Each structure stands twice: as C-alpha cells, then as structure tokens.
Amino acid sequence: IFLMWLGEQITEFGIGNGISLIIFAGIIARLPGALLNSFRLISTGEATLFTVLFVLLIMVAVLVGIVYVERALRKIPIQYAKRMVGRKLYGGQTSHLPLRLNTAGVIPPIFASSILMFPATVSNFSNVEWVKQIASYFLPGTVWYSVIYVGLIVFFCYFYTAIIFDPKDIAENLKNHGGFIPGIRPGEKTKEYIDKVLSRLTFWGAIYVSVVCILPMILIKQFNVPFYYGGTALLIVVGVAMDTMAQVQSYFISGQYEGLMGKTKIKGRRF
What we know:
The chain is mostly helical. It has a single domain, classed as Preprotein translocase SecY subunit (Orthogonal Bundle), CATH 1.10.3370. The protein is built from ten helices and five strands. It has helices at 2-13, 18-28, 31-44, 49-70, 107-124, 129-136, 143-164, 167-176, 188-223, 231-263; strands spanning 73-80, 83-85, 88-90, 94-100, 179-180. α2 crosses α10 (231-263), α8 packs antiparallel against α9 and α9 crosses α10 (231-263). The radius of gyration is 25 Å and the shape is globular.
C-alpha cells in the first residue's frame, strides 16, 4: 500500500510513471549483487572469466538491440485533401501514422509467465503424484516451458495489440478529417491496409519479444551461469528509461519556450 501511494506521489509531483520507476529501481538495485556474485563464481572456479565476460557482452548486445527495436517505427504516409472555406484554402498537409514494431510492449511476457506459474502454484497445495508430474513440465528451463512460453507470448502480442489499436477507428477518423493514405481508398480499404501492416509488425514484434525472453534461459542452461535479468526485466528497464528520458526532454523543451516567451514580453501603450 505504501509503495502504491509513493508511486502515485511520484506520478503527480515528479517525472514519469511512479509505479514503473519503483519497479525500475528494484531491478537496478539487484545489479551490484549480481556483479559480486559473478566475481564469487570466478574466484571459486564455478565459472570462468571468459564465460562471465561472454554473458555480460551478450547482455549489453541485448540491451542495445532492445533500445533499437523499441525506437523502431513504421510510418504510414497520410495526406489531407484540400478544401475551400470561404476564400481560404485549407488542408493539403502531409503527415504520417507511426506504428511501433512492439506495440504490445511488456504486457505479453508478463501475462505468459503468470499463466505458466499457475501449475506450479497448484502443485504446491497438492500431494497427488500426477499433478506434480504435470507441473514439472512447466518449470523454467524445460523444453515444454519454452515452447508454451513462446506460444503464449505470440498469442498475447496479437491479443493485446488488437485491444489497444483498432484500425477501423483510425480509418474512420482519417476519413472524417479528410485524410487518406496515398494509393489506398478511404474507408474499408484503408482499414484493411492498416490491419495488414499492423499484423506484419506484430508478428516480428512477437518474435523479438520471444527471443529476448528465451535467451536468458538458454544462457543458464548452456553456460551454467545465472543470468540475473530475465527478458521481462530488460524490457521494463529499457522501456521505463526511454519513457522517462522522453518526458524529461519534453520538460526541457517546454521550459525553453516559456523562457523565450518570458523574454519577449510586449509592453502595451495607453491611449
């Protein structure tokens, strides 16, 4: 309850989303312990220096890849028809409709991991042997877990994208405001085109999220070195950092405009 209240205070009086920043801080706070544990593994001989450095390089490469993909946009050109109002000509502007590659964000892996935790939770309250046997197939690191995990991520990517983004509403808004996609008829054809582009982006976005979430499991199994940050944690860290930086940048820009307006005050003359 205290953390929820603190998150609301940060959101209201601070910068960024308070709850997201608290989760971000909790993930980053584990970094010193992870580094100390890595040195301990090297000193005890449980892991070689090459293995630890290799895992760290992969982690850095994954972070760079996440930043690159999260900033990726597919811009659909939008053109507005010209119209005459009185003696003035309005419209004719050219804009674009930005579509993110990962529209669903971090929600799909969170939902997928929550569902896969259910069998293990049930087995903890049951002494039936076959229930525990079935739950063993859903343990992280097993083949069945990875296959079902990827399948659920792909499903929730499409499901959540369909909830938060409706091509029909976009097509109707464009038509009502005189906008159209060059070469595409307004209305139903525009809706079908946006839906087609969004489906392709969602497919590659689901592949990207699946790779980011499965890679730590592969590293743990192959190199026997604990990967201290799962794919979901990496997505949260990068997403929160980018959103906070964008908000800070917008504050700086608005502050510059306010300073400019303050310096250029026009004094009135009394007649």
